[in-house]
Amino acid sequence: MRIWSVHPRYLDRQGLTACWRETLLAQAVLEGATRGYTNHPQLERFREAADPLGAIGDYLAAVAAEAGERGYRFDAAKVHRRSAPPVAIEVSSGQLALEWRHLMAKLEARSPELAVRWAGVVAPEAHPLFAVVDGPVASWERARPEV
Fold it and tell me: pTM to 2 decimals?
């Protein structure tokens, strides 16, 4: 499961649809509607939010909005709840940098035209749910730091 901290605009079609599906699964986990992935480390930051279900809903809404910009039809009715007011979750600059390297490696392999398009980006924008703060890779991250 990869719930990207980078803005969904950087994801290719495969990445965007996988992010949508995996975050829907995360929503189900947070709702207690499934037994799988209940201890997945990526969920730690959502569980720590003041409104975990609202936060995951806000995340999904931004992914759906990006999909809509591209002409895809992600079913927004699958977003069960939004936070009011919107929440922000901190993401460290180290985590964002690791994810950027990880995404660029994926893009180079499966969507080289996007890898070229984003190659000049040094500091990618974060997903709208996240507020970037200085810091190292998150403790919940399982990807190898050299990725």
Answer: 0.93
